[in-house]
Request: fold
Amino acid sequence: VGVRLSGSSYLDLTNEVFANEVVFTNIAPAVSNLVFNGGVHSGPVFLSSTGMARIRTNLTGGTLSGTIQDSDGPGSVSIEGSYPSSPTFSTVNRLTLSGNSTHTGGTTVTNQGVLNLTGSLGATAVTVTGTGTIGGSGSIGTGGSLTFQEDGRLWLKAEEAGLNVNGNVDLGTRTRVVVGFDSLPPRGPFPVLTFTGTLPGG
Reply:
């Protein structure tokens, strides 16, 4: 049995494992919410073209191993947190997306949201605001893009491959890059992300 989220409704997955589909049917300006606090959702999430979906994480973050998909046209999603995020990319507010999502509307990381992308996104324009953080070793698909607004943060581990963007990357006026090390820092330059398009800004 799936769950349909309409109006300003919430589905709270605090410490829950949930496998059924979640369908956003809200109409703007109402924003429906899928909330994680240590929970795991392995089912698909369907976005509506008529309103913004919000995926919000609390103190212990969460994992979405299912896919984010369009249902009736391009759907948009906002990934947000609830507590001040840590510059060390701790689990506070961190949402791990490990599935292969295909939605084509916008993706915004904002309001202390922390996106750990280990799977893939489709042809979505990803925007990281000055209160958002993105990291991981996943990819943004062909036709997608990655844009940082002023003070948006890119997190990476020096020992791992960073994000791969099959499109343009815009660093804006100032992007903060936070690097974590498991051991001694590597000597010389190392890549922070890869991309196939243009790189304005910075």
Summary: The two ends are 47 Å apart (CA to CA).
